[in-house]
Design goal:
This protein is an alpha/beta fold and 286 residues long. The protein has an eight-stranded parallel β-barrel, surrounded by ten helices. It is globular and about 65 Å long. It has one domain: TIM Barrel, CATH 3.20.20.70. It has ten helices and nine strands.
């Protein structure tokens, strides 16, 4: 069932949980996300990041995502993750994406505001929802990097968030409160007061957590209690798939051919199980 991000966030708010948002840069990850969400009977966000064009173009994955969402047994939002240009945002909206994220977080504040306002106008004309970002998770916004200390992080200012939300009319706000994209080499130091402050100052806007992979269950729950309603998660599901393929390859007997399609099966199974555990955590399911 194809729905907007705003609809999914309403469910998250009512249940006081967070909805998982999982990147689908290829067919296998899209299949794994859909299977996990249907098995868990939970709404889900499937998303494609502009930086994932190196794997498959959105012209290929966008229509597939739309088809999967329309046929899904659970509510599913098709979302653009980290749209870097308004032209790319428009391309995804024309494909039917029900939500977009315009990411102007690295631009000067006023330029971010003005561009986000344009993105909101474009999306609303199509009936789509809008997420934006204020602050910065560091230099690895694309998902690359190792999660180590990064002095380019800029924590979100709740007072500035109030001004940003009022002037742009976004439906959700990605906030920087200590997470990092990529693999964590050190334990993240999360400041949940940032989330609480943003929620308070903005009148309760749903907060989005980027850099969610690798965070402890306890910290996820603390973030959700503080007001996080959407959690982006990709790196560790991707890592689970890679690890499964390596283990499968190492298990082959001498002379046994390493067929690629068999590797895909192992990768999908590993992603599905990893995703189910993440969904359980976000929904407070034991």
């Amino acid at each position: 069932m194809l729905v907007t991000l705003k609809e999914i966030l309403k469910t998250a708010e009512e249940k006081q949980i967070a909805i998982g948002a999982f990147n689908a840069p290829n067919l296998e990850s899209l299949q794994a996300v859909t299977a996990a969400a249907e098995e868990m009977d939970l709404p889900v966000v499937i998303q494609f990041a502009q930086s994932h064009e190196i794997y498959n173009p959105v012209e290929v994955m966008g229509p597939l995502m739309m088809q999967f969402a329309r046929n899904a047994k659970i509510p599913m939002c098709v979302h653009l993750d980290h749209g870097e240009t308004l032209e790319y945002v428009e391309k995804c909206l024309d494909m039917g994406f029900t939500s977009i994220m315009y990411d102007g977080s690295r631009l000067p504040y006023e330029e971010n505001v003005e561009n986000t306002k344009k993105a909101v106008a474009m999306a609303k004309a199509k009936g789509a929802s809008v997420e934006a970002e204020l602050g910065s998770m560091g230099k690895y916004e694309s998902g690359a990097g190792d999660g180590s200390e990064d002095d380019t992080k800029i924590y979100t200012d709740p007072v500035q968030a109030k001004d940003f939300v009022e002037r742009t009319g976004v439906d959700a706000l990605a906030c920087s409160f200590g997470t990092t994209h990529g693999i964590y080499l050190t334990k993240p130091r999360l400041d949940f007061s940032v989330v609480e402050g943003v929620r308070r100052e903005t009148g309760g806007i749903p907060v989005v957590m980027h850099g969610g992979s690798g965070v402890s269950k306890e910290d996820f729950h603390a973030a959700i209690r503080a007001g996080v309603r959407k959690i982006n998660y990709f790196t560790y599901m991707d890592k689970a798939a890679g690890t499964a393929v390596v283990e499968w390859a190492n298990s082959l007997k001498e002379g046994q051919p390493p067929f690629f399609l068999n590797a895909e099966i192992e990768a999908k199974k590993a992603m599905k199980e990893n995703l189910k555990e993440a969904m359980k955590t976000f929904a407070f399911i034991d």
